[in-house]
Amino acid sequence: MSEQSAPSPTPVTELSSDPGSPLPQEIAGALKRDASGLVAAIVQQHDTNEVLMLGWMDDEALHRTMTTGRVTFYSRSRQEYWRKGDTSGHVQFVKSVALDCDGDALLIRVDQIGAACHTGTRTCFDGRDFTVVTGHRD
Are 36 and 85 in contact (CB under 8 A)? Predict the structure, then answer.
């Protein structure tokens, strides 16, 4: 499958004064990373609000995501960067990136092409529901 060309990257504000981070200082300073330097990244379809998957990003993966128009993650198991869709063709085109109020999770809104899950399902949550007692308002 041929890759669609990514949209032109949107310029990001000035880079961090921290030589170890490629991110703008205000973003790098706001991130609360885990002990491995990673932040959870929730990926959501931009037009349906469907939650597609969860991945992990360090500063470099977030920088690549923000400046290329394609989502890049950091693989905890392989200890390497991977850009969604490079081998599967199931590309995620970035529409927006937001940081939660605590600074420990990202919301990446995308246009997902094909399956988001490595198992071939549309989302990583398809068919994996638990049986629960549901709550109701009084």
Answer: no
Does pTM top 0.85 for this prediction? no
Position 19 scores a pLDDT of 59
Burial class (CB in 10 A: 0-12, 13-18, 19+), 58: buried
Please say if the pLDDT value at position 17 is more than 80.
Answer: no
3-class secondary-structure state, position 76? coil
- Neighbouring residues of 67: CB distance < 8 A, sequence distance ≥ 6: 9, 10, 12
Give which of 131, 88, 94, 86 is closest to 112, Cα–Cα: 94
The CA angle 19-95-32, to the nearest 5 degrees, is: 40
Write out pLDDT tens, residues 96-113: 999 999 999 999 999 999
